[in-house]
Amino acid sequence: MKIGLLIIATNKYTRFLQPIIDSADIFFLTGFDVTYFIFTNQKIDIKSNRNIKSINVEHKEWPWMTLGRYKIFADNYEELSKMDYLFYTDADMKFVNHVGEEILSDRVGTLHPGFFHNPNTSNIALEKRPESLAYLPPNTIKNYYAGGFNGGTSKEFLKMSQTISKNIEIDLEKHNIIAEWHDESHMNRYFHENKPTLELSPSYCYPESWNLPFDKKLLALDKNHNEVRN
Ligand code: GAL
After folding, report:
1. Comparison of pLDDT for 76 and 230, the residue scoring more
2. Ligand 1 atom having least distance to the Cα of 146
């Protein structure tokens, strides 16, 4: 079974690459045939015993790298569809405990660490303009998912990538709308219409300095957002 782990890291984000790969070598689906797909604009020299494929992408200013992630995947359909499963992780994350076959399912979403205790609180994060293709009326969703870690079979993940990248493009062209939380808003709309077949706990997107009632498996590292983005 072939698994692809997708990581986008341009400019300063490349500093996160070796640490996340080191942690994935130890904890991410050990025993599986994993390929790291690294989408970057830099020449990188990453050490790992696993396969690494570096794919060139252009750097864009915030928020265009996050907003454009699903287009990058859709644009690499042919290469990525050779995998059985695909998982995306933000680069500024770190595996700190075993992540195994419990994550393998058709469509995999991770509950957002900020809203798991009460989905209604996620109303504040929702896209509120009805003309946006990311729009979700308040109180319609049961769960709000984090953009930092998700995946599924390559077929389902690439289908989601195509739909989301098309919807983002339509929002921009027709209405000049960038959704409230960028690609994450579109992913939540997609998951509202195409329910995840597996919902991971916030263990898999656990903010480093928070204290949550979950095991830590994949940490979202503390960072100075403005410093890294510029
Ligand atoms: C933040 C997170 C953002 C977005 C937001 C939604 O904690 O850093 O990426 O998910 O929550 O409210």
Report:
1. 76
2. 10
